Amino acid sequence: MRVVETNVKISAPVSLVWDVLVSFDRYVEWNPFMVKAAGRAKPGERLAITLRQSGARAMSFKPKVLVADPGRHLRWIGRLLVPGIFDGMHEFILTETGRGTSFDHKETFSGVLPALMGSKLDSTALGFEQFNQALKDRAESLHSATS
User: Fold this and answer.
1) Domains: count for the chain
2) Dihedral pair phi/psi, residue 14, rounded to 5°
3) Residue-range definition of the domain harbouring residue 119
4) pLDDT tens for residues 57-91?
5) Which of 21, 79, 106, 122 has the most CB atoms in a 10 Å sphere around its CB?
6) Which pLDDT value is given to residue 87?
7) Which residues form the signal peptide (predicted)?
8) Residue 127 is part of a domain; what is its CATH number?
9) How far is the C-alpha of 76 from the C-alpha of 80, rounded, in Å?
């Protein structure tokens, strides 16, 4: 099992950060990592996500939403072919702070392939950091425009 975890502090209310996070159809406007997304943040729903990591070709998958607790927690699982080959449990955890939102972005990889991939999953952290910074920029910009 491999875990990639990142965090960013966002100077915007948790409700606004959540709205930006789950407006999947708008990802194309701001998200350099998940460049295309569609679907609804509701347990049991399937999303359509296209990732583009630096130096790699785009990859599309259809994860299943497991948790969608507005303003707090979004979790989905994506799989390659069948369970146990390459599974990714993706999580976003939002925590209200005195100055805005603490945003945790995490993925737990399990299965046969992640164990064999070694450092190839390390670039995922860079993608998460790019996602986090873009989310921060988007949310803070929207917050400034409405304040």
Assistant:
1) 1
2) -60, -35
3) 2-21+63-146
4) 888 999 999 999 999 999 999 887 667 677 889 99
5) 21
6) 84
7) none
8) 3.30.530.20
9) 14
